[in-house]
Structures are given as structure tokens and as C-alpha cells.
Amino acid sequence: MAPSPNIPEEVDFSLFGGAECLPEGKQTPTSFSRRTQLPLTQNSQDVYGSKPQDPSDFLWLMTEEPHRSRRMTILKAHPEVTKLMGHEPLTKYVVLAVVLFQFTVAFLLRHTHPLSWTFVVVAYTIGGTINHNLFLAIHEITHNLAFKGVKPNKVLAIIANLPIGVPYAISFKGYHLEHHKYLGEDGIDVDLPTRLELICLNNVLGKVFFCTFQILFYALRPGFVRSQRPTYWHFLGIAVQLSFDFAIATFVPGGKRMLLYFIMSSFWAGSLHPLAGHFIAEHYVWDNLQQETYSYYGWLNILAYNVGYHNEHHDFPSVPWTRLPALRALAPEFYDVLPSHPSWPMVVINFIRDRNVGIFARVKRPPRAVKTAPPPIELDGGCADEGVTSASQKWEADNMRRRLTSYGQ
Known about the structure:
The protein is mostly helical and 409 residues long. The protein has helices spanning 44-47, 66-77, 90-108, 117-142, 150-161, 169-181, 195-201, 204-212, 214-225, 232-251, 255-269, 277-283, 310-315, 324-330, 332-335, 344-353, 391-400, and strands at residues 59-60, 363-364. 47% of the residues lie in helices and 1% in strands. Belongs to the fatty acid desaturase type 1 family. DEGS subfamily.
């Protein structure tokens, strides 16, 4: 990115965690500050410079979501990408270790008053980080990437859910798979803010409220937008979680405070926490572009199952977290030309203080049923619940599920 006349050429503000967005770090002569960065800076003038979005409505597009076409192009250019697909055996060990660690912290705090500084600070710094890690572990497991089989993945998701305190892993799976299949489709993709949220929260105080209580929006919005038909696994997940909560609170001395620690950790994990910046970074429209998915390549990915590699993840959902950096390295001509975020914490700050981004900054599409020529939907197998066992079989199985024309087909 070309610096302004007042900024030395050699200064790279991306090294300062997003400081380029502050007045002293502005690097463009445009009417608004640039929030994202390009790995290939020579293309910046071709990418940036569009007019601000109308804040009274979402960005409605009739184009298909970008990941299918890029996936097909990458597969043609780099067919060896299929070798990166498949489950990651390391995942189950990491998940179980993190669950055990969170149990240990809760046990050590069982005699600490919940309103003490020690309890609150530990719940935010350690508990919030751990439970956010478990959020993203469940995300990884949702794509059947911890085991080859579907059922072991669901069992592990239920176990990973235990320190979160509230059962959500099984219902998250259904909603998240729809988020991949129907990205941006109004009324189907429940990751999208509703019209009511746009009306009520489209200001600084509203955005502060939204960022503080993100976890509640993600928990409650799906039920209002699109209810799920419960399955055996839904009831099993709820029963296991409630039984665990009851046993902790009833039979463990200090167990009620342990349970409170779990729930407080989950709240902080989805609130004003550094890792929670990825919720906003991933699909909100930034720099007035029509790009609906953004990646982040910083060190916080270590704590977040590389979910920052979000363009890569949506392009190939069956590539596990350990191989997403290899996917980017395999196809730099596709990923290094996309603006990305230099910092998750600064994403939250920018979201709150910048008038050019807000609840309105999401791409929406009409539900596919009202389109005259619905595009085919293809996934690379990472979202399927079918019992396929290899990357090539997954790809073949996905091709057999082509030409979905409406939800539920």
C-alpha cells in the first residue's frame, strides 16, 4: 500500500496490530481509512477506492457466492489440493487436553468468590481463551475432520461442549453447514444479521452492545430466523450437557462456582475478547468492497484452529486446520490477491468506531427459490455427513450431489 506523504515509505503499520486505521496511521488519500491489507501491495490501487456503502441496507447481490467458482478454478490449477483433504488425528488429542485443562482451572477456582477480581480476570483471560478455542474445536469437528466417521465426530463435539456449560454443538452443526452451502442467503444463512438488528444497532452504541453480547446474538438468532427439526443427536447432546452440569453443581464441593466459571468463560469468549474479533472479521464487508469473506494470518490462529484462514476454509471445508497454511502456500496466486485483516482486536475497534462499517456491512442474497436460474452448489466434502472415507471419495460424492436447486433438496 502506498503511504501518505507524511508516513515514511519503510513503515509497515500492519506490524502494529492494525494501527494503520488510526488517524496517525492512515495510508491512503481516500475519504475513509483502509482497514484491510494486501499481501501483494502493487495491486492495491486496483482493489481499493470504491465509494462507501449505503448504511441503511445490507449489500444485496445477485451473484453466486465466490467460493464455489474459486474452488473449481483452484482444483483445475492445482489438482494436488485433494491430498490436503481428510481428517486430522491430532485434533482429538488437542481437544481432550484443552477440556481437561479447563476442568482443572475451574476446580482450582471452586472456592473463589465469583465476583472477586481473581475469578473474573481468570475467567476472561484463561477461561475465555479456552472456551473460544473449544468453540472453534466444535467448528472443526462439525466438518468431520477429527475422525473418519461421522458418529465419533459428533461424540467428540459433545465432549468439547462440556466446559461451555450450554448445549449447542449439535444444533451448531446444522446451521453451520447451511452457512457454507447457502452463504449470504437471507432467511437460510443464520450468520447474517436480521433487519431488526440493522434498525436497532446501526450506531456506535448499538455496535458496542452487539460486540459485547455477540454470543447471545449467535445463540438466539437462529431460533428466530430458522428453527431446526430436532434429531436423536440433539436430545443426546442436551441430555449429556445438562446431566454434566447437574452432577458438577450437586456432587462436587464448590461445583456451582465451577459451573459459573464455565458459563462466564463462554460469555467472555463471545464478547469483547481478542479471539472474538474473528466473528466480525470473517464476513463483514470492509473497505467498501464486495468481498464477503476475509482471512487473517496472524499469530492468534495458534489459539483458534487456524480459523483465520477463512477464505481457504470456505473454498475447501474438508482441509483440516493443520493444512490450511499449506493450502494458501499451494495457491498464492488466488489468496495473496485478496485483502485480509492484520489484526482481530483492531477489527472490533474499527467496527465500533468506523461509520463505513456496521451491521449493514454484510452481503445478502435472496433465497435461491426466488431466483430464475439457481446456481449449482458444490462442496468438497468437508460439510457432508455421508460416510465417505477418503478425499477422492468425498470429491466424487460431492459431484453426485450437484445441482441443488432449493433448500432442503
